Amino acid sequence: MIMGKIIRIGTRESELAIWQATQVKDLLKQSGIASELVYIKSEGDIDTVTPLYALGVIGVFTKTLDAALLNNRIDIAVHSMKDVPVQLAEGIQQAAVLKRGSYKDILVLHPDLSERNTPFTVNHVSITTPGSKTKDRDNSWSLPLREHTDKPGKPEDVVIATSSFRRIAQWLNRYPRHKIENLRGNVNTRLKKLKESNWHGAIFAAAGLERINLRPKNSIELDWMLPAPAQGAIMVVCREDDDYVFESCQSFNDEETTLCTKIERDFLSALMGGCSTPISALAKVRNGSVTFQGNIASPDGKEILSAGVRSPVADSSKIARTAVEGILSQGGQVVIDKFRNATK
């Protein structure tokens, strides 16, 4: 141990980012290692209006912290892992992955939705707290949204907000007549924008809202929506030549989360390589086996190609490649090309 060394933890200034960095600070403290938070504003936080796909989004939330790391302004950076490019910047290494939180997406309804004349309604929902096992009356969690013919308006009047290509594609695949609006900003900002909008709802990552106790009661888990690779996981990175910091982080590296997120990110990398693409992936470990689901969608959601793989943990290094081969055998390259053409 380097006596007297205080590890500088770089973090974005949002409430969620600070929460994540504080978790790392507390974990280091448990090992008797002193640390402090260093606040850095990212490009993704400065511009909260431009859609992510128009920003050249790869690393938009991480590159400022990475630059500070390489310039020796900080010693580690803490990221939402789904925002981290699959290819880390030269000179930076993964130091730890924390135990994964919820990987699910949720739909947060507009607080005044019930007062509107709209064809968009939601079954009676009795869930009041995250994690509750209570279901709505007709047990239709897999289809929480209904279009009622006895209500004024048309299905195409329904507006859902998100800036994620992946969420847009999966939503339009299920509800092709709904409209999508861009929604940017940290979770607090997005919740405020939803409340002030005329949208019917907005899609969030469950983990982000739950970690800072902001998940509204009127939210519904989208069990049918496959998450982004590494969603719900937190990654800690450090400089490649900083052995002290790397070793300091090993005590809280979660091996199962590390394995699952690696498979998911390998799948993403082999298909397209960008963290903003309409590619979804989820790996789970159970009883010595890894179960993997992955898909890729066209930007309009009309096409979704899926692959599923199950393998012993000992053979997990082959899972991503097997899944990619399954996607490509279904015509996946055509879908990839459509996405690239749509974002040029």
Assign a percent range to the helix content. 25-40%
Poorly predicted runs: 44-58, 123-152
Strand ordering within the main sheet: 2-1-3-12-4
End-to-end CA span:
50 Å
Q: On the 0-100 scale, what is the average pLDDT?
A: 84
The structural class is alpha/beta
Number of helices: 10
**Element-level helix/strand string:** EHEHHEEEEEEHEHEHEEHHEEEHH
Q: Give the biggest sheet.
A: 5 strands, mixed
The tally of strands reads 15
Overall radius of gyration: 21 Å
What is the percentage of strand-forming residues?
A: 15-25%
Coarse morphology: globular
Query: What is the oligomeric state here?
Result: single chain
Structure description:
With 344 residues, the protein is an alpha/beta fold. The chain is built from ten helices and 15 strands. The protein has helices spanning 15-30, 43-46, 63-70, 165-174, 187-195, 206-211, 243-249, 255-271, 319-329, 332-342, and strands at residues 7-11, 35-39, 76-80, 92-97, 105-109, 120-122, 145-147, 159-161, 179-181, 201-205, 219-221, 234-239, 279-286, 289-297, 304-312. The strands form four sheets. The protein has a five-stranded mixed sheet, with helices on both faces. Helix 8 packs parallel to helix 9.
Provide tags for this entry.
alpha/beta; five-stranded mixed β-sheet; 15 strands; globular; 344 residues
Task: Summarize, please.
By secondary structure, the chain is of the alpha/beta class. 29% of the residues lie in helices and 23% in strands.
